[in-house]
Queue: 2 jobs
Job 1
Amino acid sequence: MPPVEPRVATGVLRIAPRACWEELGGEVVVYDELEGACVVLNETGARFWMRLDGRRTTADIACELGEQFGVAGDLVADDLAALADQLVALRLIEAASGGPIDRDGLEQP
Amino acid sequence: MRATSFGLHALGLRATLTVDHAGLDRYLRDAFAHVGATVHAPEHRLEVCAGDRGAGIALDGRETWCGEAGDLAVELTRIVNRLVVWRSGTRLLVHAAVARLGGQMVVLPGPPDAGKSTLVTGLVRAGWEHLSDELAPVDPGTAEIAPYPRAIGLEGEARFLFPELRPEVEAAVDPYLARRWLVAPSAVGRVATAGGPATLLVFPRHEPRAETRLEWIRPAHALQELVTNTVNLGAHGRPGFRTLARVVRGARCARLVSGDLARAVDEVTGAAR
């Protein structure tokens, strides 16, 4: 049986230094400065992205968004975990090993 | 014959183009008139050699291409574009055609064969001012678009749509028009001499026989497509991405599927009003 990879995306996450992003009309466009790739996050994804401060877990954010949308955090959690997995795979977010990353890609204390 | 030269000065490019055939020289000189200038101390030297069995292009003394006469226009514009991209300095270059009507500037980003040159030619024939058929240079400080009035390249179906734009050349130059016509923008209509902010971003896609339709898109999707069509974003990185976001914030954004040129021109003109 292959070893089970720990799900990075369930821990405390932050925006990767390589990712630059712009909020437009409630959505977020993320540009990978190293790869040149670009993804669009819908409004829910954008709300998740804006909360990736290197302090909150995906579950914390799910609870917050659940409250905002008036639904149980569990219902949001699976979707956010899947999104987080994708963003980790794209290396646009990462496990927080230091402070949050600002808009210039620099780590804050 | 003795070869003759003229200067090319566009964006950061300072080059001379030397042609060893009098009729071909006149054709290219006319086509590139809007980026033609006296260039002292050129950074690049392009030479076009016309032979009985084909043509060749040398760049800075080294043969870069040789092939059939009909392919010369395609190869020459490709090489000039590469030099412009290389020498573009601080400007972002979006693969796009650009035109203006009154205070409305439309940028039409798209990959090759999206129909940019045909659409911008149709717009200029309908009264718009021409700024570019190939590259939209974006100033990183102001996010405004500068003109790049290089020769318009018309090929394929476009030549049937605009037969009156066929360059008038002597018979010996006819083989050079076989695949693409190079047309001076002033032969099509009015040519803008100054740039400005984009007010409308339309992403065209030519689909023969498709129903022509323009649909508004969300700005985030427009920025994603603009990134895809920016040829030198890698050299500009994060500040370049932010500049593109400024362009999008200042414009309304749409996609255009074009199966009929007249209808497409109407759709874009209607969207600009």
Note: Residues 12 and 87 of chain B are 5 Å apart (CA to CA).
Job 2
Amino acid sequence: MVEYRWQRIVRTQTPLLVVTTVIALATGLILLSAEERLLDEAWVLALFPVINAIGGNLGSVLGSRLTSALHLGSVSEVRSRELGTNLVATLLLSLLMFGGLTLVVWGITPRLGLGGGQVPLFATAALVVGCGAFITLGAILLSILTAFVSFRRGFDPDDIVIPVVSTLADLIGVASLIGLSEVLL
Amino acid sequence: MATAGGILRQALPALALTTVGALVAGALLGHFAHELGETAGMLVLVPALMGLRGNISGALGGRLGSAAHLGLLSIEDPFNGTARNNIFAAITLSAGTGVFAGALGWAASSAFGYEPAPLVVFLLVAGLTGLLASLVLSVVTLTIVLVAFHRGIDPDNVTYPILSTVGDIVTILILVVVLAVVS
């Protein structure tokens, strides 16, 4: 029978949290480097939680499905049909979510008083879909990599994949948001 | 074997729900951008503080879901030993990681020449936000798990999507309130 003792939980989670916090602070430094522009154009800052939420979730869903498949033995090689099906599903989800998000952002942003005024649909789409493409590809590669590597090294991938993938996906999301907004706006 | 369409049908509702939560969180972040900007360098802490939700409360939700399946939680005695140990661990980790992020975030933004607000402000804001956010989110997590399990729903399927929907909003609101009180 499992017994939950807070000391053991704290000991288990601390090393990973140190790693994810260091990566998250690197993400924060990227935000800070663009602070003036982000405070003026607050709608770009407002995009960061949602792009990261979608990217992190796509990676987490793929990662969870992969770790279960690894445990069950239905996926053992990177080249397999089941992994292919999961990749197609992840790409379709990404396309639907970031496509929809473009329309929501374009329709809502000018009404929230967060700066930006009338941003053309093309620039909004290029920004949102561009960030979406970077974060989706990053999340896919990272979840495959962390799932296989942690499983083969004898760790339980469930402990590692989601925190690592969602934290690194945040970094990719913020870097592409700042970079693309500089180019496009 | 699952098909791409099947995965899509199951994942899309949860993803859409999370996206609505994150949109609200983003709008709040944009709305309070100037309050954030007033305390120099605070922006560096936002990703780390928002990340606590997934890494600590998400793991708490996973453990409480397993504990419910093992019969270790009960809706009649919600704060039993198992629940207390799990929640205390989450709060300790969250406050501790908050203070760690505050110290390291201050050091990094000083090192990169951003002239941040005093170290004590960083420690207080990050530590208190971590503590209070995990207090609220732990109770939310326990409630979701207990209610879901009581109604015959597998907590593993619903806890994380609901948690990530409310998590960002709770974290940003608490950060803004803590900032206003500390500065």
Note: The CA atoms of residues 125 and 178 of chain B lie 6 Å apart.
